[in-house]
Amino acid sequence: MNTSTPTTGPIAGIHTYAGDCPICGQAIMAENNKLPHLCPTCSHPLRSPNPDSPWQNICHCLRLYFDPRGRSSRREFWAFTLGAMVLLGIEGAILMLCHTNHILPSIPVLVWWILPMLIVCPFSAVTIRRLHDLGRSASQYIICLVLAILGCTGVVLHSMNVQPEFFTSAVAEWCWAALRADIILFCVILYTSTQHRIYGPNKYGPAPK
């Protein structure tokens, strides 16, 4: 297919090649430089919702809960990220309130992990799609996620005195070092996500808007 020559439809207007669907590989034609909402073959979402509506961007991320394929716009990424930070901040405030009023022991520890576990999957997916939008692979975020899991696991097990012969103080120090490195890497990812994309399709699919 000649990707540089636009075609003109009899009614719809000018159609140009915008890239291939990241799911089925179908060639996507943009109408007057505007992508269709869904792939005509597999119905995969191709375009972010109204960029002026953070709520719609958040709902779009939730619909693609486990789907890291394709690309996400900067507005979509930051709408979901800021929404997740607000929710985690509220949970942190409630946790501190419970600790201050000495009612924390009556609440199972797993309750406080429900919200972070619900957020981590859609956040991982939208972060990977955002990196794809900038032409980057997901390896940077995967390293960040692995460091966070290993660091948190080691620190928690050491503090709970689980298998003290293995989770020694030296292992805990290495886990804290991994968490510090993870915070730096995460900040780099957040900074990268503020950048403008290069216009047009890339190897991860068409631009989301």
In short:
The protein is built from 5 helices and 3 strands, in the order E-E-E-H-H-H-H-H. The chain is mostly helical.
Topology of helices and strands:
Blueprint lengths: L6 E2 L5 E7 L6 E5 L22 H10 L10 H27 L8 H25 L5 H21 L9 H24 L17
Antiparallel strand pairs: 1-2, 2-3
What can you tell me about this protein's structure?
The chain has two domains: 1-47, no CATH class; 49-192, no CATH class. The chain has helices at 54-63, 74-100, 109-133, 139-159, 169-192; strands at 7-8, 14-20, 27-31. With 209 residues, it is mainly alpha-helical. The radius of gyration is 22 Å and the shape is elongated. The longest helix has 27 residues, at 74-100. Helices cover 51% and strands 7% of the residues. The model is unreliable at 1-11 (pLDDT under 50). A hairpin with a 6-residue loop joins strand 2 and strand 3 (27-31).
